[in-house]
Amino acid sequence: MKAGLKVCGMRDLMNIQAVTALHPAYIGFIFYPGSARYIGSVDPELLSSIPATIKTTGVFVNETLEEVKRLIALYELKAVQLHGAESPEYCAALQPYTEVIKAFGVNYSFDFESLIAYEKVTSYFLFDTLTVNHGGSGKRFDWSLLKQYRLNQPYFLSGGIGPDDVNELASIDDKRLHFIDVNSRFEISPGLKDIELLSTFFTLWNAAPAAKNYNDMNYFVNEKGYYGDFGGAYIPEMLYPNVEELRQHYLEIINAPEFQQEFRALLKDYVGRPSPLYLAKRLSEKYNANIFLKREDLNHTGAHKINNTIGQILLAEKLGKKRIIAETGAGQHGVATATVCALRGLECVVYMGEIDIQRQAPNVARMKMLGAKVVSAVSGSKTLKDATNEAMRDWINNPIDTHYIIGSVVGPHPYPDMVALFQSVISEETKKQLLEQTGNDQPDYVLACVGGGSNAMGMFYHFVNDKDVKLIAVEAAGKGVHSGHSAATTALGKEGVLHGSRSILMQTDDGQVIEPYSISAGLDYPGIGPQHAHLFKTTRAEYVSVSDEESLDAGLLLTQLEGIIPAIESAHALAYLEKMEFTGKENVVVCLSGRGDKDMETYMKHFGF
Ligand SMILES: *Cc1c(COP(=O)(O)O)cnc(C)c1O
């Protein structure tokens, strides 16, 4: 199916009749007095003479509800198109009377998540160029921004569409694009359409082939909490109320303007964002490509994890929670959680395996200094898995006042989506920075290391629908993929359920989780998040692995070429550059997820400093 056409902004009787004869799907009339195409008070007869198969549409900007309702009745408008700051409640109030199309001006900073509140109270969205005059500028916006639009609601495309755009429009591979709005670029003067030009456009449009392959692949979560075959919420019944409360409220809370304001302000002033995108010159020379490092290592507390804990502590506050629990393996997520609890004055309990407590004394001390209570998990292997079980038990016992902060894109729905949303600031910034630095917001390659997968999801998020951008996820091969000491999940794993969601994990034939191994604590995890399982299975992203040895060497190389000591996790992503081949032209972004201070002892032992 190809998109239908809408023509908007006529005033003159003969002109209206000529446009009607072309039989567009919609004809729009502008009832906004501030517009050069304002229709004034027309004779209702004129509009009622338009055949019922064409939807007559009233275009409004911040008009009172009574006036809109009066005009709907007077002109028997089949649809209204709202171009101002009309609220979801306003749209809902009009829905019983007519079809509601809500228009949005789109630019680089447009927040597509803000549309969620409008999805149920409108029939369509209309995406237009952002201007102070509420549309009709004749200017086009960057259509590639629509790749960030991930709801199912169909939409109109508007804004500066001209006579030469037929082929480009016909190639847009999106079945949610239902209508195309043509307006100011087909005019002799404001409000007077050039019928010959319009008629040619209609003929060409009807003759153009529809895009062949509609993009059916959706890499984002669906209403049921799945990414393709993966995701969902596999939880004990006792945990259901807690997870359900979160599922029902997380998007509404996160998308509220006050939340976004608070979140963004803390990311800026407390975390130190935006983190730089640094063109590493000497590293680039060595690999014969432009290597850009996304410097998450410069964040407060030294890694990307703080983006997520800031988001979740604000969410917990909005849910009225007073107490925070978390599990931690090496202590990195525990420290990031204890940090935000100190920041907001909330009680904090971190579960940690007894063996990990002994191995990670400095992080345990940090958590305690930050005011957190560190509880030792003494069952099973006394490591992360057991800490997770203890945290779950705590949450079941304290469903009312406690929020559980999970540290990666794992766990039952909505955690993977929620954590990915908070971490998506990484790719959001990267796109803007790339555009500034290279004139193109799409690099050739994006690389990130994967433990559970949160820094990688944040780094991939705004690139997943950019088909030309190759995504590479680097797992930890440990002492070798088949050495029996590895955490290369996609190479060794099978589909199954881990930590509340269906994904890919390392398991024996009878479903026992295999103990993973990596020299870097952050990658020492037997699974990957469900989004990654989906990206892997659909081959949208490539999953590779590098060994302990290769990573340590890459860490040393970056240190001596650029003066940056990376976390050993991040060094895994860097190590894969060694295995790639470049021609000198490629732009490559590597997520430097964290700094290496915490790993000095390991580096010292290995290199003998
Ligand atoms: C925790 C950690 C990781 C791994 O976690 P993901 O959820 O896969 O991002 C990677 N790098 C650093 C520096 C970490 O602290």
TrEMBL record:
One of its GO terms (cellular component) is cytoplasm. PANTHER family: TRYPTOPHAN SYNTHASE, TRYPTOPHAN SYNTHASE-RELATED. The gene is trpF. Its EC number is 5.3.1.24, 4.2.1.20. The modification N6-(pyridoxal phosphate)lysine is found at residue 305. Residues 272-594 form the Tryptophan synthase beta chain-like PALP domain. Belongs to the TrpF family. Belongs to the TrpB family. Keywords: Amino-acid biosynthesis, Aromatic amino acid biosynthesis, Isomerase, Lyase, Pyridoxal phosphate, Tryptophan biosynthesis. This is Multifunctional fusion protein. NCBIfam families: trpB (TIGR00263).
